[in-house]
Amino acid sequence: MPKIVDHDERRREVLSAARRVIVRDGIDAATTRAIAKEAGYSNGVLAHYFADKDEILLSALRQSHQRIRERLTGKVEGASGLAALRELLLDNLPLDAERTQESRLEVSFWSRSLASERLAGVQRAEADELRAAVRELLGQARAAGELRGDHPDDGLDDLTEHLLALVDGLSLHLLLYPDRLNRVDVERLMLRALDRL
User: Looking at the whole model, is its pTM more than 0.90?
Assistant: First the structure.
């Protein structure tokens, strides 16, 4: 009797292996051979499920983003305005092992995206989605009277960019300079920025 293969599960295993290789060894080390070895499969198995290395990498990035979205949906359920914004921004910082791996994965793609329009397109689409969520929550906070002062629409756009840059900068600093900055510091800095709103 032939063995029944769960193709979706096998794809997930390959993508999990790709994420582990990227996080542990860097994106340049994420060759199809290294990914196949990590997953316990042959290169031929990878070729059966993915057209090329870029498709594996893109799929791993998309899968990571989907997991983040699902986790975040649960965290902000029933919240709006600044309460939801707080959860969203803190969730995008590497404040625990899971989010540290997600941040390492994301940052690994940045330099490669500069040289690959295909990867850059995915990065931009995902970043646009996050930007829209932050901007929407700031609009809710303004409508609820939660923001100090009067923020016109273009002011909320600027504030959105500031908060996203803060997330990226704090994340990168925590990953690169752990002796200078720790998770408690990063959370405190983000909460202080939100308190100023």
Answer: no
